[in-house]
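Dear Dr. H.,

I hope your travels went smoothly. While you were away I took the liberty of generating a structure for the chain from your last submission, since the lab meeting agenda had it listed for discussion. I wanted you to have the full record in hand beforehand rather than looking at slides cold. The sequence, exactly as received, is reproduced here:
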Amino acid sequence: MLSSSTRRARIMMERVKRKKNPLIYKSWSKKRKHKWLARRQRQERRFRRRGFIAVLVSMLFLGALLVSIIMKGYTAFLKTRILLPVEFTAQAIEQDDYGLLIRNALQQIFPEAADPGKIRDLQALVSRMAVHRLRDMVKLDPALTGQKQEIWLPASSDVDILFKSRLYDLPDKRGRMSDEQAEWITDLAARDMLKLTFNTEFFTGADSREPEQAGVLGAVMGSFFTILVCIAFAFPLGVATAIYLEEFAPKNWLTDLVEININNLAAVPSIIFGLLGLSIYLNFFELPRSSSLVGGLVLAILILPVIVIATRNAVRAVPDSIRYAAAALGATPVQVAFHHTFIYALPGMMTGVILGIARALGETAPLLMIGMVAFITDIPQDLTDPAVTLPVQVFLWANNPETGFVEKTSAAIIVLLVFLVSINALAIYIRRRFEIKW
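The corresponding predicted structure, in token form, is as follows:
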């Protein structure tokens, strides 16, 4: 370490050099300055490269995830059907034994399957919902009795998976299918008695224990009713709270405490809101369990802090000159808030509300706590019917051991992503279309 006298001496010598050789000192300081700027520019270029690499890696991971989901799920939009020569015998129709019609049709194609075990394996090629299809056909047209028609019936889930992936020639990829069943599938495919069609049942049906019968309409309707209740409660309450806190509430310790609690609620884990709904809505008010009404109320509490914070930011962004001009023209504080401030802040409010809805649409944990995880085979018709949402349906199918539900899970995720992307695109459109720049 240099002493203070030595440092003072060096400073004095530096001053003398400046006075004697100002040009030399100036060029030296300029060269030093250029080195410093070059170093700063190199650091900035390195930072930009690292940022670009980070974004590129993130996009690669996201792209790999989306590709994996799409590759596993797009096959669920297609369905395998089997062409069978069905003879509508009067005896089977009178006995309501439409399974007999399917067995007879299969035995016409494969007469060698005579013993009960082979007949059982043969009938396993066709979906169980084919019986209901034949019954509905006879109800719509009783004149089919005694006739013989070639009808495309839905195949079972195992046949569907093997035919889509063309794995019936690989013994280690057949799953539960026996070698004889694989030979039958190969024979049907060679005869052009198997084909892929658009799976309308996936978009028009509800949950089912059979993968080939499962659909997402029940979950879509449950999500619709749940979000409807959520908006009806969260939007007016959140907007009114934000406007009061921003425009009318006095600035004291009480309002500061309320603001702190609102900010803290936005970071509370979502399962806590599920416990709150379980204790209040179900145990205290005894509302219908597993209903969209309770689910919507729980999600309304969940997104309420998000709406309040977004609305307050939108209201705060409105210039004070708007408020002063309205007050100067004789408007009351309430008229200033709702006739002027609210109108100009509405685009920002709507953006916050839509983003809150997108978060609510993707929530699962709070809905599990209030019982919206039941096996529901009926499509809900009103707010009090038992229902599930799309994220819960994904959770249920992901835990199902049946192989056919793997593609159903990915397909449901694709449907959910489409809804989320649409909601976020709507928020971006509203912000850009109605945003006012001051």
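Two observations you may find useful: The chain has a mean pLDDT of 84. The chain has two domains: 80-197, 217-434.

With kind regards,
E. W.
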